[in-house]
């Protein structure tokens, strides 16, 4: 008889995250019993063992697969990223924040000082005459207590350590995670390191459920509340900015099904380097104007282009952050 | 001087840490409940078109994204100076009731029940959701998963994205409900009502009929005399989606009742150098420190405070349970922290009943989903009750609706001071000279903050459902005296 294969050792960790990625893992529902049957969860702070020290005590490469979600915002996030890199055979950047910087990455439009000033001094409900701000070390009557150091920049996981694979999405579609998990457990062949897995290769637009006429041109862009969406025509062809052209397929069109345009959480498809550059060319090709002045007028309809193009990807984009 | 560090506890919008300092006698001197995380939404929402905010702020929390989406949607309506049409308002509320059903079910069965159904001093490896299922039967366990899944299906139908709802648009919603979909929701909501009643029966059988548990709830080190906050409708009944914020004092007398736009006159926030999370307090009383009592500015915003702050529930079955809870616990207001679990189940029944009412409303399938927009007044406050407390979003924009400033007071944040004090009180009551700090002691301390459900719901869908802790007791010089590990 064949020896039973040793169970897979799986870890899930969150850094600067909202918990949505962990919920997507938990949303396997009854299949959780199958996951537990095939894998030992050796580290999962929300669910099981949260002892950092136990991870430190593990031999290097002890964990087979770590799903790391959340961006790197502070010193604790960075420490855990480096530790889990060392202890994991395969480190997966799981979800938009870890993959691209995500929504917390929008903070790179500001500096640490801007954020602290707003949150702890200027917020209208704050009463703080002594201008107290949280400190990484603070001496209380009984001793010194510590907080992680808040960095000036938000970084993606790959900007801190080497990453083996990326599973995109905010959060990743649970069905995609199950596919990846089954592939790992059955020993299926994996793409080269550094690949995006658990998603499509094409753009959202190529698989969109909305109707597209291909040659439609527009003379104006609208904000969502300026027009009545017909519920079935391509958003771009209705003049509503949609990140579909610059976004990888695979999410199941969840926002589109809710009659809301795509905002790019799956990141750019493989053949696109920068979502902003791709969007500019998509926009240029749909504008029904020839004169530079007219094109400029249409482009002015687009408010906050950087905040839309890089909604989930500012830290890894060409612009990366606001220069201070 | 000795020092106890519990790091990390688990999720409080991320990560949490407790530092306990003991005096020479081995008694608790001071406790610090630290939140070591900040992401800065208030800052990076600036410059965004305001209609994008309901989707952006939902990412504050993947556990209760629907609450932020709703508070934000309401604030955006005010920024545009509009009220959504009745159908749109009902659809939002319908979504919101499903959001509450899902969250309250998860919290009770996976987080609270292990302490009561299995027992506060049961072996740690039994004190989890599996232990609960073992005790009540697998059939019930499957029913819990099923009901939570159904609540999520309703949210996905109305909200698009299964986690990060995208339904709100200025002045309304993006998607309506067909007759067939409505009929389906009616059936599902009937199931919720039955399941909520069933859950209250479980609470009755396993908790209320056990004198030891009732004694822990009423007489354990878990009681703080705090003011109570909650949203109420025009009849002063509990409401999750809309109404005025009512605050009653420690004796149950109304202190204030204010509209969302007036919140800055009533609530203020304090900053401490040892936590990234601010400490809200009642502004007119002022910050008097980490103390409870009638003269303190500290309040709580929880299922129990909502029931304390209201005159009753707006649905018949929940009203009966409301009356039963207060008559059992000795009248209003109740200050027993652990009674939050009971209050949460009364709310579960209300959410289920109201979900059914809304699904049966004739105009829920109406076609008027968005109100016409006029000029942009440029400032708006939206308040809802999140599962974990009163949630306030306040936006300012320029005349094009581009955000210039944002202020947010999150549900759990309201309770920051209260949670610190509850942990301190439990620690003081349990850690004494000559008493060994055991796993049981750890769990009893943990129960103090678990009652607040401080955004721990993530942990609820999971199997073991039990937080681990390391507790280290050190001399002030760092020398390790005792280490207790609980998995």
Distance between the termini of chain B: 28 Å
Query: Given the C-alpha coordinates, what overall shape of chain A results?
Result: globular
Oligomeric state of the chains in view? heterodimer
Biggest sheet details of chain A? 6 strands, parallel
Mean pLDDT reading of chain A: 90
> How many domains would you count in the coordinates of chain A?
3
The level of helicity of chain B is 40-55%
Strand line-up across the major sheet of chain A:
2-1-3-5-9-10
What does this protein look like?
With 324 residues, chain A is of the alpha/beta class. Chain A folds into three domains: 8-103 and 153-185, NADH:ubiquinone oxidoreductase-like, 20kDa subunit (Rossmann fold, 3-Layer(aba) Sandwich), CATH 3.40.50; 110-151, no CATH class; 204-316, no CATH class. In chain A, 29% of the residues lie in helices and 15% in strands. Chain A has helices spanning 20-26, 32-38, 52-57, 75-87, 96-100, 112-122, 174-185, 204-207, 254-257, 275-286, 292-300, 305-309; strands spanning 8-14, 39-43, 63-69, 72-74, 88-94, 137-140, 143-146, 150-155, 165-167, 195-196. In chain A, the strands form three sheets. Chain A has a six-stranded parallel beta sheet. The model of chain A has no long low-confidence stretch (mean pLDDT 90). By secondary structure, chain B is α+β, with helices and mostly antiparallel strands. In chain B, 42% of the residues lie in helices and 18% in strands. Chain B contains 15 helices and 16 strands. In chain B, α4 (86-118) crosses α5, α4 (86-118) packs antiparallel against α6 and α7 (179-208) packs antiparallel against α12. Chain B is globular and about 70 Å long. Mean pLDDT of chain B is 87; it is low at 10-14 and 456-470. The chains are: A alpha/beta (324), B alpha+beta (487).
């Amino acid at each position: 008889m064949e020896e039973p294969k040793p169970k897979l050792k799986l870890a899930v960790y969150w850094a600067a995250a909202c918990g949505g990625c962990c919920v997507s893992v938990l949303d396997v529902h009854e299949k959780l019993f199958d996951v537990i049957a095939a894998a030992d969860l050796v580290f999962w702070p929300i669910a099981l063992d949260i002892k950092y020290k136990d991870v430190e005590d593990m031999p290097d490469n002890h964990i087979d697969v770590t799903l790391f979600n959340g961006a790197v915002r502070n010193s604790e996030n960075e420490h855990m990223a480096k530790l889990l890199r060392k202890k994991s055979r395969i480190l997966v950047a799981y979800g938009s924040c870890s993959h691209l910087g995500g929504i917390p990455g929008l903070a790179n439009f500001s500096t640490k000082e801007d954020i602290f000033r707003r949150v702890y001094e200027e917020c209208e409900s704050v009463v703080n005459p002594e201008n107290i701000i949280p400190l990484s070390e603070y001496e209380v009557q009984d001793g010194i207590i510590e907080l992680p150091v808040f960095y000036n920049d938000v970084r993606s996981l790959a900007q801190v350590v080497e990453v083996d694979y990326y599973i995109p999405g905010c959060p990743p579609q649970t069905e995609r995670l199950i596919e990846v998990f089954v592939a790992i457990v059955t020993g299926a062949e994996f793409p080269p390191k550094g690949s995006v897995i658990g998603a499509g290769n094409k753009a959202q637009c190529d698989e969109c459920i909305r109707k597209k006429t291909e040659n439609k041109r527009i003379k104006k862009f609208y904000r969502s509340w300026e027009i009545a969406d017909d519920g079935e025509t391509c958003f771009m062809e209705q003049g509503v900015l949609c990140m579909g052209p610059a976004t990888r397929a695979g999410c199941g069109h969840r926002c589109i099904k809710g009659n809301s345009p795509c905002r790019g959480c799956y990141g750019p498809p493989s053949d696109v380097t920068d979502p902003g550059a791709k969007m500019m060319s998509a926009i240029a090709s749909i504008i029904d104007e020839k004169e530079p002045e007219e094109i400029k007028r249409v482009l002015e309809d687009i408010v906050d282009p950087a905040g839309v193009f890089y909604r989930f990807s500012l830290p890894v984009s060409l612009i990366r952050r606001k220069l201070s | 001087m000795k020092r106890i560090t519990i790091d990390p506890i688990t999720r409080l919008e991320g990560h949490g840490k407790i530092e306990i300092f003991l005096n020479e006698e081995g008694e608790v001197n001071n406790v610090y409940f630290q939140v070591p995380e900040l992401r800065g939404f208030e800052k990076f929402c600036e410059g965004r078109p305001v209609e994008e905010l309901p989707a952006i702020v939902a990412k504050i929390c993947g556990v209760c994204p629907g609450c932020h989406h709703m508070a934000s949607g309401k604030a955006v309506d005010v920024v545009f100076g509009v009220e959504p049409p009745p159908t749109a308002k009902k659809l939002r509320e319908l979504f919101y009731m499903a959001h509450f059903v899902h969250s309250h079910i998860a919290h009770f069965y996976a987080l609270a029940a292990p302490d009561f159904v299995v027992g506060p001093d049961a072996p740690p490896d039994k004190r989890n959701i599996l232990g609960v299922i073992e005790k009540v039967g697998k059939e019930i366990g499957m029913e819990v998963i099923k009901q939570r899944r159904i609540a999520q299906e309703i949210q996905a139908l109305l909200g698009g994205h299964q986690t990060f709802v995208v339904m709100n648009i200025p002045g309304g919603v993006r998607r309506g409900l067909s007759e067939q979909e409505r009929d389906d929701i009616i059936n599902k909501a009937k199931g919720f009502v039955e399941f909520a009643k069933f859950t209250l029966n479980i609470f009755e059988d396993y908790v209320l009929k056990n004198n030891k548990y009732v004694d822990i709830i009423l007489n354990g080190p878990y009681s703080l005399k705090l003011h109570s906050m909650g949203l109420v409708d025009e009849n002063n009944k509990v409401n999750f989606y809309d109404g005025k914020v009512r605050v009653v004092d420690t004796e149950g007398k109304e202190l204030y009742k204010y509209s969302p736009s007036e919140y800055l006159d009533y609530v203020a926030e304090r900053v401490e150098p040892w936590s990234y999370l601010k400490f809200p307090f009642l502004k007119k009383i002022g910050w008097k420190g980490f103390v409870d009592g009638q003269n303190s500015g500290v309040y709580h915003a929880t299922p129990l405070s909502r029931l304390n702050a209201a005159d009753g529930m707006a649905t018949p079955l929940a009203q009966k349970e409301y009356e039963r809870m207060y008559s059992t616990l000795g009248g209003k207001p109740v200050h027993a922290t652990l009674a939050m679990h009971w209050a949460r189940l009364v709310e579960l029944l209300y959410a289920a009943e109201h979900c059914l009412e809304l699904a049966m409303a004739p105009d829920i399938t109406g076609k008027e989903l968005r109100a016409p927009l006029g000029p942009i007044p440029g400032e708006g406050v939206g308040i809802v009750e999140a599962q974990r407390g009163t949630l306030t979003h306040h936006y300012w924009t320029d005349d094009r609706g581009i955000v210039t400033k944002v202020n947010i007071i999150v549900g759990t944040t309201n309770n920051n001071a209260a949670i610190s004090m509850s942990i301190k009180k439990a620690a003081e009551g349990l850690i004494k000279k000559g008493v060994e700090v055991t796993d049981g002691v750890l769990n009893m301390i943990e129960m103090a903050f678990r009652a607040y459900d401080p955004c721990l719901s993530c942990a609820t869908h999971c199997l073991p459902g039990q937080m681990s802790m390391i507790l280290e007791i050190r001399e002030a010089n760092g020398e390790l005296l005792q280490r207790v590990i609980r998995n």
